[in-house]
């Protein structure tokens, strides 16, 4: 599903309004993939098809603005993450562009000190990856430089899930501190 799929999922409009209201109240918000896209749009950004679909494990690089930001303390400047998207968001006015990848320039933004949008997936577990793969098998058959086949995704997951979890816990601890 995508941000623009209002006809199929009319509740997306309500979700965008909810996010807009919550972010205006200086609440702590973390959006991942579709959540980050909804947040971007709620903040005045634009969501559109990305030049490339990203499906699989690819490096994410923090921007120089993120290197010294407290939320990324202890996280490598470049790390592997799971990607599963064909759309991208613009960085909303007033937000900081904090991460990119070779296949998608806008991988993350920070708006104020309490709103974090991530295009990539740090929350992935073995079970959630299995569910994504079962729910969208056609995504792994697409052609493109940033689409991996099922076997590659599963093999890389064995090597990367622990590091992913490590980065997620660090990020969540920092976000929790910032949201006090």
From TrEMBL:
PROSITE patterns: GATASE_TYPE_1 (PS51273). Keywords: Coiled coil, Glutamine amidotransferase, Transferase. GO terms for molecular function: transferase activity. Residues 12-127 form the Glutamine amidotransferase domain. The keyword Coiled coil applies. GO terms for cellular component: cytosol. SUPFAM superfamilies: Class I glutamine amidotransferase-like. InterPro entries: ChyE-like, Class_I_gatase-like, GATASE. Residues 147-174 form a coiled coil. It holds the Pfam family GATase. This is Glutamine amidotransferase class-I.
């Amino acid at each position: 599903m995508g941000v623009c799929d209002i006809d199929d999922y009319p509740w997306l409009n309500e979700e965008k309004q909810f996010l807009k209201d919550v972010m205006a109240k200086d609440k702590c918000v973390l959006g991942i993939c579709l959540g980050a896209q909804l947040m971007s749009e709620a903040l005045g950004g634009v969501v559109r098809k990305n030049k490339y679909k990203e499906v699989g494990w690819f490096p994410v690089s923090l921007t120089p603005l993120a290197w010294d930001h407290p939320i990324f303390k202890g996280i490598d400047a470049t790390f592997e993450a799971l990607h599963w998207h064909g759309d991208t968001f613009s960085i909303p006015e007033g937000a900081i562009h904090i991460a990119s990848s070779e296949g998608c320039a806008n991988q993350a933004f920070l708006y104020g000190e309490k709103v974090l949008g991530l295009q990539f997936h740090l929350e992935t577990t073995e079970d959630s990856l299995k569910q994504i793969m079962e729910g969208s098998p056609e995504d792994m058959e697409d052609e493109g430089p940033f689409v991996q086949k099922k076997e590659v995704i599963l093999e890389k997951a064995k090597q990367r899930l622990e590091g992913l979890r490590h980065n997620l816990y660090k990020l969540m601890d920092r976000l929790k501190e910032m949201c006090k």
